[in-house]
Amino acid sequence: MDTVELTVHSEMYGETICVVDIETFLKGRKTFPCADGCDYPLRSKDIREINAALRERRLILNAYSALKSKHQEETNVFPMGFAFSNEQFETAMRGLGLEPTDTDKVVSIEAGAFCKTGDVTPLNEMLDRHRKELQDAIDSDSTGDGFIYTMFRYELSNHEFGYTWEADDTLDALGFTWDDINANPRLLHGLSRAMDKVKKEDPF
Q1: If we measure between CA atoms, which residue out of 182, 172, 188 comes closest to residue 138?
Q2: 177 phi and psi angles, rounded to 5 deg
Q3: pLDDT in single tens digits along all 204 residues of the chain
Q4: CA-CA distance, 66 to 59, in Å (whole number)?
Q5: Whose CA is closest to 27, among 8, 56, 2?
Q6: I want to staple 161 with a disulfide (CB 3.0 to 4.6 A). Which of 13, 29, 154, 156 is the partner?
Q7: Is residue 43, in this structure, part of any structural domain at all?
Q8: For position 1, what pLDDT does the model report?
């Protein structure tokens, strides 16, 4: 959401809702429309309530990037080697405490990556935990407006959706298919909202 709704007292209607546009509020505006059509001047109490809502929203917006960074940091420190040439392979093997001839002591993972045979189980356990933590965060979002939205918004921007308007690369990166999205109202809502947001931020 790009608005905050406040319960205020209107002279004409009594208790009513004032809708505060966040972007306009951050630019300094201090009056916003109520149901009676009049502009309502924000009180100190209202401003504190808006700022509290913004702090909570920033925490939500940072949740996916924080989880992604955590997973990346754990992956970076895991003992793996990467090689796309013989020279790189020799260097990576020695980085794992092995000789280049100790090929029976390593296992190929994917995309030029490999690890020691004894580290396969810990690696799989780490990757399984990463998948579970991501799924738990997705499951905790009951509407699609929280973690799901920020997940899609982050990855759409990361995969240049603002220029291509194609979301396939984003879904591939997250392990989703369009069938997955269309079968889950929360995912569909979060993706649709994120696509609209990124389009507005990155116009042609």
Answers
A1: 188
A2: -110, 165
A3: 466 676 766 555 566 677 777 767 766 777 777 766 677 777 788 777 777 776 666 656 678 888 998 999 999 999 999 999 999 999 999 999 999 999 999 999 988 999 999 999 999 999 999 999 999 999 999 999 889 999 999 999 899 898 889 999 999 999 999 999 999 999 999 999 999 988 877 543
A4: 10
A5: 2
A6: 156
A7: yes
A8: 47
pLDDT at 52: 75
pTM: 0.69
Q: Look at residue 198 and give its three-state secondary structure.
A: helix
Number of folded domains that form the chain? 1
Q: Strand locations in the chain, DSSP E?
A: 3-10, 14-21, 31-33, 39-41, 80-82, 106-108, 113-116
In a domain, 16, yes or no: yes
**Quick one: CA dihedral 80, 86, 91, 96, positive or negative?**
positive
Residue 75: closest CA among 20, 22, 133: 133
Whether residue 152 is contained in a domain is answered as no
Examine residue 172 and state whether it is found in any structural domain, yes or no.
no
Q: Where are the beta strands (DSSP E) in 11-144?
A: 14-21, 31-33, 39-41, 80-82, 106-108, 113-116
Domain range enclosing 17: 3-55
Supply the pLDDT for residue 199. Answer: 86
Q: What is the number of alpha carbons within 13 Å of residue 41 lying toward its C-beta?
A: 2
Encode 158-167: b = buried (16+ Cβ within 10 Å), e = exposed.
ebebbeeeeb
Contact of 32 with 21, CB cutoff 8 Å: yes
